[in-house]
Amino acid sequence: MSENSNGGLTGELAALDFGAVSPQEFARIVKGLSAGQLAEVMRGELRVRVLGEVFGRMRQQFRPEAAGRLDALIRWKITGESDLVYETAIADGTCTVTGGRSAAEPRTTLVMADADFLRLVSGNGNPVTMFMTRRLKVAGDVGLASGLTRYFDIPKA
Fold it and tell me: Is 1 contained in some domain?
């Protein structure tokens, strides 16, 4: 993806059918974008579409055999032009994702900016490094948070 004079990067990505983009292709797109370009993408309606698609695919990327008997609610708070909250409930070998904050108490809460979230879920960000540099904040069960990547197929760019 490159910037151009007729609409720029945001226009190119807005035209994409995110449902047709494979996780590997998404990882490649994220890897190729600078922090500034990711910030440009994560504005307005395009931000909502991208986050909706990522969270919508978590069920398909879930690895029930790795989760075993895990029973946990994970809250994701994505910061940017506004805070968006999603929750991932893992129980009985299934993963369900809902938008918004429920009344339930999460076992762990992850807070990060848009660009860091996209890098994390696309396999382009190291969660340990992100945590150590405070770009990923964790409240609650840090052990669960540190092992979350093993419960999902994370694409490689």
Answer: no
